[in-house]
Amino acid sequence: LPAIALAAPEDPGTAKVRKESRQALLEGESIAFDLFVPESQGPFPVIVAAHGFQRSKANMEGWGRGLAQRGYVVAAPNFPGLFPDHAKNGRIVSALLAEVVAAGARSGDSLLGLVDGARRGVLGHSAGGLACLLAASRDPTIDVVVGLDPVDNAGLALVAAPQISVPTTFVLATPAACNDNGNATAVHLKLGGPRLALRVKGATHCDGEDPSDGFCGLFCGGAADAKRQLSFRRYAFATLDHVLACDG
User: In degrees to the nearest 10, what's the CA dihedral of 33, 198, 196, 242?
Assistant: First the structure.
């Protein structure tokens, strides 16, 4: 693909985005998910945006809309259960990517012709980042991973990391309880492909989701801050644009 010049992350652009709410049976679970779709001519790369522990797709809406404005079809799921099965959530990420790609080829579907299944990315906050890492370790169709202050659990990501050969970026907050004292750093060192990690100065775990709320701020070291969230967006968007949109 030819290189293109995309707007800087702080520029929201003028592209119109439509939101659709859907349901699909994935890995034996009825999964509700929101779709964010650019209202322009496709096809577009597809991204799954995965929420963190005890959060929901609502906490990834800012990511979904922002990415759709940049020319991506984005699916933000609700993971099942109060206490996650991380391995299953990883499989749900892969299955949701496949579902959206299939919808893009389905006659009569509103996504018909809008999804480029050859360009797939995953982006996740906290435990959603873990789900994305697990998905990428077993799904060769995934081209890029972005972890928004991801958190490992029981060493699952450490085991999976060497199997991830695609470009991976971690945007990290200050080590604290909600990111298990920054345990993603050890995971990053084990990744099998090109990798980048950076820590946003003064960031809390809540800065990785958009929108956040007072509940996160109360339990995770302080409320999200718009300037710090912009730093998360800048490096996440730069990674995805470079790999999926051929931004030169």
Answer: 60
